[in-house]
């Protein structure tokens, strides 16, 4: 952890997003006080602000495991408060559907309301922590999720209706959902912008093949799926995305695969340059 945070700081970042399932600070829905203290001591050794990503596979709508996943969420929120982290990210719940129904019984509108009620309750206990729901990469016609598209994300955020609940827009995930359609991606950015609290930016080729049974090396060779490439290595129009973020002042996290850590600094430089172009254009300085 120290080595990775040092690489991030030396690359020129001013924020690092921690991943809770890589810290081992909570087990079985309980924060391990000694482990949490150790992690916080490491965090304090760097001049970085921190955000926290809850476990990637945590699914608040997982049939039969709702209570377990809620406990995981609550323990992550508890650690965030302990560590002074003011923003947490979670992936929108997802359920396979049959003819518009989730599993054998639950209709999708019931799932929507169930998740919204849960998030209202959790946000009510979050105090000064901002909770942001993130869209995932592979949502097909046989899947329900409140993060399935930009319109649904905004509708869900409005249904939760809490000041400390906003959206995390993952640009790479949405580009895969859009099957590499840059115009659709930019329309989605404009749609979520009023509710945007956090942004994940990385590159891919817009080829939405999950390839769960293939390793990263093969997916990389094919240019397929969620690759988390350095900026400029794929087909995402990141420059246009950043230009479209008029008025957005939240954090932008570059989610770059660790094997490309030598590209942390160049990707940061690119992103900051493009943001500078946006601000210059907005100010009439070009």
Overview of this protein structure:
This protein has helices at 2-10, 33-43, 66-83, 108-125, 150-160, 171-177, 182-192, 216-222, 238-243, 264-283, and strands spanning 15-19, 26-27, 30-31, 49-53, 87-91, 94-98, 101-102, 106-107, 130-134, 143-145, 165-170, 196-201, 252-254. The chain has 286 residues and is of the alpha/beta class. The chain has a single domain (2-277), classed as Alpha-Beta Barrel (TIM Barrel). It has a seven-stranded parallel beta sheet. The protein is globular, with a radius of gyration of 19 Å. The N and C termini lie far apart (41 Å).
Tags for this model:
TIM Barrel, single chain, 286 residues
Rg measurement, Å: 19 Å
Dominant shape: globular
Structural class: alpha/beta
For the largest beta-sheet, the strand count, sense and barrel status come to:
7 strands, parallel
CATH C-level label: Alpha Beta
> What's the number of helices?
10
Q: Give the integer mean of the pLDDT values.
A: 94
Give the termini separation. Answer: 41 Å
Low-confidence spans: pLDDT under 50, at least 5 residues?
none
Question: How many extended strands?
Answer: 13
């Amino acid at each position: 952890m120290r080595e990775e945070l040092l690489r991030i700081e030396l690359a020129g970042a001013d924020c690092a997003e921690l991943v809770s399932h890589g810290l081992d600070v909570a087990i079985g829905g309980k924060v391990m006080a000694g482990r949490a203290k150790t992690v916080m001591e490491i965090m304090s050794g760097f001049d970085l602000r921190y955000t926290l990503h809850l476990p990637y596979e945590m699914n608040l709508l997982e049939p039969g495991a709702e209570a377990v996943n809620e406990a995981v969420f609550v323990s992550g929120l508890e650690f965030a408060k302990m560590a002074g982290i003011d923003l947490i990210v979670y992936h929108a719940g997802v359920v396979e559907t049959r003819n518009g129904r989730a599993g054998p019984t639950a209709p999708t509108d019931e799932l929507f309301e169930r998740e919204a009620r849960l998030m209202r309750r959790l946000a009510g206990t979050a105090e000064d922590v901002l909770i942001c729901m993130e869209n995932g990469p592979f949502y097909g016609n046989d899947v329900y999720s409140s993060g399935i598209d930009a319109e649904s994300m905004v509708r869900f955020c409005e249904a939760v209706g809490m000041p400390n609940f906003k959206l995390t827009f993952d640009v790479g995930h949405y580009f895969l959902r859009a099957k590499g359609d840059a115009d659709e991606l930019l329309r989605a950015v404009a749609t979520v912008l009023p509710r945007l609290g956090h942004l994940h930016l990385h590159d891919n080729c817009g080829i939405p093949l999950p390839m769960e049974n293939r390793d990263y090396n093969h997916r990389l060779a094919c240019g397929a799926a969620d690759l988390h490439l350095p900026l400029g290595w794929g087909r995402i129009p990141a420059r246009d995305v950043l230009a479209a973020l008029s008025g957005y002042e939240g954090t932008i996290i570059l989610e770059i695969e660790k094997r490309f850590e030598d590209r942390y600094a160049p990707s940061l430089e690119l992103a900051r340059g493009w943001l500078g172009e946006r601000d210059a254009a907005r100010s009439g300085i070009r």
